[in-house]
């Protein structure tokens, strides 16, 4: 929490009146339960074992960094968004879009925008390739941590678990749901954002439905945002649940047809080619027809072009990039930055000495979109490096 004192308007001179600011009532509760001490809250947070949801390398921070100032305003001006945000009867907004359409960037920028209202904003980014981000129970734990400061009754409830040395694993998902709903219902205004429902573990239709139903529990004060691809099982879980929908269709139908014809034909069944090609269409100001004309003929040509362009931009030689890429693609598991930096320090003959930090920074900057830095779940400091092609599937 910030050390900065909350702003309080001055009381009229000579008056006994005390004017109460927003921060004075942010954790108000009808039962007049007093908040726990900072040490107690810290112990509860530790007990909940949340993910590093606001860490520099978190999914939220990563996607927020991709948001360009001034973009996405169309969403805030859309009729469905306005109805969701302003009317008391609409509490659920569902944003759908195909892969690469920018849903996660929109979710991150929306979290940032809503946080400026000085009310709680709970969020979670599902990711199948990150161990801590594909189980439903991790969302509940993160949201409980994020709302903890605003709910003294929740602090009191969870303190009993800590005081009685109850293990977190012994607390059922139903109990966590009950505590979360109680906390949400007692707060005057709260936003909850769950990104990429389709990347949650399979067979969790009931959990998706429960998330959606939060938007109907108290729609005037509990506002829910869900994002997903239009997959069959998410659609099935949401069937019959009233929601306001927004489609992430960023180009007109004519251009969509051109892209659908051009990319799969050149991809020749390789999802990786299609994924990398679609990045070109998502560049700010990209012209669809010009981009199609400049698409590489095959994946080999695309790799060469990407490495050459990245070498020009970053100053890292193609030889060094190819060597790092070979290490990553031939590894049986994602390599850690520390491992790659150690290898880099000994593999290049006649290379000027570099510090370990410099070598790690070089690995981070190498190969552009062909490598992905994943958060390390053991220490949260040194990432793991994965080749984007390792997670590709056939079209």
TrEMBL record:
Entry keyword NAD: no
Top-level lineage group: Eukaryota
Keywords carried by this UniProt record: Repeat
Location of region: Disordered: 1-20
SUPFAM superfamilies with a match to the protein in the record: P-loop containing nucleoside triphosphate hydrolases
Residue stretches making up the Nephrocystin 3-like N-terminal domain: 70-229
InterPro entries in the record: NPHP3-like_N, P-loop_NTPase
Pfam families linked: NPHP3_N
PANTHER family reported for this sequence: AMELOGENIN, NACHT DOMAIN-CONTAINING PROTEIN
Record-given protein name: Nephrocystin 3-like N-terminal domain-containing protein
Native species: Fusarium culmorum
Lineage: Eukaryota, Fungi, Dikarya, Ascomycota, Pezizomycotina
């Amino acid at each position: 929490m910030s050390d900065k004192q909350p702003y309080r308007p001055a009381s009229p001179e000579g008056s006994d009146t005390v004017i109460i600011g927003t921060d004075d009532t942010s954790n108000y509760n009808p039962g007049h339960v007093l908040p726990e001490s900072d040490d107690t809250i810290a112990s509860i947070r530790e007990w909940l074992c949340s993910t590093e949801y606001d860490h520099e390398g978190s999914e939220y921070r990563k996607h927020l960094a991709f948001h360009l100032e001034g973009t996405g305003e169309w969403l805030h001006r859309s009729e469905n968004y306005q109805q969701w945000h302003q009317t008391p009867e609409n509490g659920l907004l569902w944003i759908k879009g195909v892969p690469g359409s920018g849903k996660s960037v929109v979710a991150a920028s929306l979290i940032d925008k809503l946080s400026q209202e000085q009310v709680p904003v709970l969020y979670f980014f599902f990711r199948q390739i990150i161990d801590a981000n594909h189980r439903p129970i991790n969302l509940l734990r993160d949201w409980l941590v994020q709302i903890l400061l605003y709910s003294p009754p929740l602090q009191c409830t969870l303190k009993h678990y800590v005081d009685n040395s109850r293990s977190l694993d012994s607390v059922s998902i139903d109990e966590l749901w009950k505590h979360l709903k109680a906390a949400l219902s007692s707060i005057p205004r709260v936003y909850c954002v769950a990104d990429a429902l389709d990347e949650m573990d399979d067979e969790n239709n009931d959990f998706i439905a429960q998330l959606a139903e939060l938007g109907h529990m108290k729609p005037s004060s509990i506002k829910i945002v869900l994002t997903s691809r239009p997959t069959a099982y998410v659609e099935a879980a949401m069937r019959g649940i009233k929601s306001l929908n927004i489609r992430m269709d960023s180009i007109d139908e004519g251009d969509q047809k051109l892209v659908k014809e051009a990319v799969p034909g050149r991809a020749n069944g390789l999802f990786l080619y299609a994924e990398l090609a679609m990045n070109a269409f998502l560049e700010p100001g990209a012209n669809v027809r010009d981009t199609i004309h400049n698409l590489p003929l095959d994946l080999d040509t695309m790799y060469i072009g990407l490495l050459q362009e990245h070498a020009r931009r970053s100053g890292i030689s193609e030889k060094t990039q190819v060597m790092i890429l070979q290490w990553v693609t031939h590894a049986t598991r994602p390599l850690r930055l520390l491992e790659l930096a150690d290898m880099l320090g000994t593999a290049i003959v006649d290379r000027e000495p570099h510090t370990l930090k410099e070598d790690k920074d070089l690995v981070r900057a190498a190969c552009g979109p062909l490598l992905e830095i994943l958060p390390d779940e053991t220490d949260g400091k040194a990432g793991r490096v994965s080749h984007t092609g390792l997670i590709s599937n056939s079209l």
